[in-house]
Design a protein that fits this description.
By secondary structure, the protein is mostly helical. The protein contains 4 helices and 2 strands; from the N terminus they run αββααα.
Length: about 90
């Protein structure tokens, strides 16, 4: 029997923050989020994994399914890489 969740999705799910709901932190819709994950290109999966740590944990945090479906990771700009010590610039 194949695994229900892929390894890369589980890495994403672990990093995706819970949101405040009904006086507690919750994560909902794991299966639905996995279905959206399957629809993403490999590049979109890499981008979402790189950017998930910048999702703010609060009562307005979207469910992971919505974040993936709407490609909300495209709204996050990663910090610019520092120039190496040997370059001027």
């Amino acid at each position: 029997m194949p695994e229900r969740y892929t390894k890369d999705f589980l890495e994403f799910w672990e990093k995706y923050p819970a949101r405040w709901s009904d006086e507690r932190w919750v994560k909902r819709g794991k299966y639905a989020a996995m279905q959206e994950w399957k629809k993403l290109s490999e590049q979109d999966r890499r981008d979402s994994l790189a950017k998930v740590r910048y999702v703010v944990k609060n009562k307005y945090t979207p469910d992971a399914r919505k974040w993936l479906h709407n490609k909300m990771f495209d709204d996050i700009e990663l910090p610019k890489a520092r120039l190496s010590a040997g370059k001027n610039g």
